[in-house]
What does this fold into?
Amino acid sequence: MLKKLRIAISTLLLGLVTFYFLDFASLLPDHSFGWLAKIQFVPALLALNGVVVAVIIILTVLFGRIYCSSVCPMGIFQDIVAWFSRRKIFHKKRKKRYKYHPAKNILRWSVLGITVLAFIGGFTVLLGLIDPYSAYGRAVTALFRPVYMEGNNLLESIFTRFNNYSFYKVEIVLLSLSALIVGAATLLIIGYLAWKQGRTYCNTICPVGTVLGFLSRFSLFKVKINLSACTNCGSCAMVCKASCIDVKNHQIDYSRCVDCFNCLESCSTHALGYRLPVGSKENPTKSQPDPQKRRFLLTGLATAFTIPAALAKDKLAAATGDSNHIRKNPICPPGAQSMEHLSKHCTACHLCISRCPSKVIKPAFLEYGLKGFMQPTMTYEKGFCNYNCTICSEVCPSKALSPLTQEEKHKTQIGRVTFHEEICVVHTEGTNCGACAEHCPTQAVTMIPYAKKEGLTIPFINPEICVGCGGCEYICPVRPYRAIHVEGNDVHQQRKEFKEEKKKEVVIDDFGF
Amino acid sequence: MDRRFFLRALVLTGATVTAKASDGLEILSQTLDSVTASPIDIVAVLGGEPEVMFKRAITEMGGMGKFIKKGARVVVKPNIGWDKVPSLAGNTNPKLITEIIRQCFAAGAKEVTVFDHTCDDWVKCYKNSGIETAAKAAGATVVPAHEESYYKEVSLPQGVTLKSAKIHEAIVNCDAWINVPVLKHHGGANMSISMKNYMGIVWDRRIFHSSGLQQCIADICTYSKKPVLNVVDAYRIVKTNGPQGRSASDVVLTKGLFVSQDIVAVDTVATKFFSQVRDMPLDHVGHLANGQKLKLGTMDVDKLNIKRIKI
It folds into this structure.
């Protein structure tokens, strides 16, 4: 019963969150499905979302690692891989069995320690790389989303042939090779571990697993072995994908148990139960505190606080560029506040990239330096940031992008326009163009009479009122470098108000011809 | 002489004279002109709601049936370029689109298709312009135009600079199309009206900008399949900071509508109309003269038979 419930909830949540990432057409509206990402542990922690963090912790203290079993998409993904690995077709001789392994506590706590230290030192990138939710998000965005879009295009071509326009074609763009490699590598490694030995990742590398595992040792409800009914047959250990049931000593390592409840159904004598500890009869041997681990934690904590703050303020590596026409300062998405804020809070789950309707956010390679590897950065190759759109800031689960209202977005300057007359077609070809001014929502780019040739107009820029949307850069016809482009602001600014002409009441009562 | 036409003219004349005695003589003479002289080249309507003005205009033009044949596959091509709501006038008025579609079906059109190659994100443009909803409600098919594969290469033998272009398959495959621009200031071409609206049926517009906008606009209008009607929406116009406008202060409520088969002429009268709000000499709108040179129409609108109606 418990197992069935677990499978039902997990399947539903995994399905929803996966589709939320795939869903380029916004079939799941953000205002009613944004919670799918916001209930994830690490993003909630970074967003200082007290409610979600408290709920997950209370759930864990009451019932164990429910989060790991039913909420974490990477956890559920591993369960699916493990389920397939145990199907007969893959094993000619006999069904695959799990067996008990001792906990790899040094490894777990070391990984957690290093991750925490790196985070304090400003390298959120490490936490982002191993956070299971973010890793899953990246994999879906880089690998599954293009497949989903390809499927859509196939359906589109069939339906359109019959004059049905329910589907529309989408352009599939490889935004970042590095993101593809990272996504594929993560999925392959975790998938391989899951195939071989179930939830290995969760109990060795995953920092969430280590933290919640620690808490779940004290949880109220636990899987208990009734010694009088147990026949030492070991069938429970054979189905335990966390490898945490030590049949010989009748011990269960609760720090690794992910509440999958597979063991409950496997026991023919019903010796296993998920229940409250029952008074004094409970636990013949209480586990002793591990002095080594304590010492390690203490040292780690001490080091963390003595790390010079200067390290955190490490200047971003200046991107090299020999040309005047290449972007030198990367642009972070609206709501990021500053590069520093983004780099500290973003776990690179790529939800903003998936949900952006204008395809203007891509994973950074080294644009922000190593610290910002895989974090979102703006690109105006395939589109420009829609003036009225605030989606990325709304969906971000870790508040690396804080929600903006449309009015706030209109005022936020993520970058400033720069113009290079020497390569502009008005100068080089002597023709009228004006594409940049046409696309500028604030008229930070306008066309003024060109002094060097009668009758032509040339762009004139007013970076003070620019929002950095990249409309000008996107549409500029000059190649290989654009004659107009946006340079990112390290710290986002408020653009200056533009002078609004007073709305005059004009009454036109004549044709004029 | 068409008796019905004569009677209608008579009734209209009578009504106008009664309503507006001061303008009576002028309007009387024009009406008589149109009855006795050559067919109407341009209908200009002032002072009504978009759908009301169009109803009047198309009646004056001889009814939709004159332009749309029974069983025809029709495209109605508005300007849906920007993610703007109707009150900001970045796009054609949806009420006008509804009325045009309705009349196409009434004339026996088999299907009516609506699209535009937008500048902003097309999903947002279609939605927030109100045109997608309006067109679908009127029974039209709204098709996407954001991908190159929807476009087909056509040659433009008369083009001066532009010798070929990729045009949306809906236009390439249709029997008749109606060009429905909105009257706007434009930072690059100075005015955006019927001729400029052609850029929304084309895939690669960067080449227009890089090789001479005013000539390329005229060149694309030489495409062999001309619109059966150009309907210029001047209900609200963007007078400054076009083609998008950045706030409501760029928009003026002018309540105008111009209909003609002559694309250069209708853009010329629309520019003159615009000049009443903001000075816009015709020679600043280079594509008009370029279009005239390519024999797409005439800028000499004084020689045309213009039907002026005030509602």
User: Anything to note?
Assistant: Residues 9 and 31 of chain B are 7 Å apart (CA to CA). The first helix of chain B runs from residue 3 to 19. Residues 16-36 of chain B have pLDDT under 50 and may be disordered. Chain B has two domains: 1-37, 38-310.
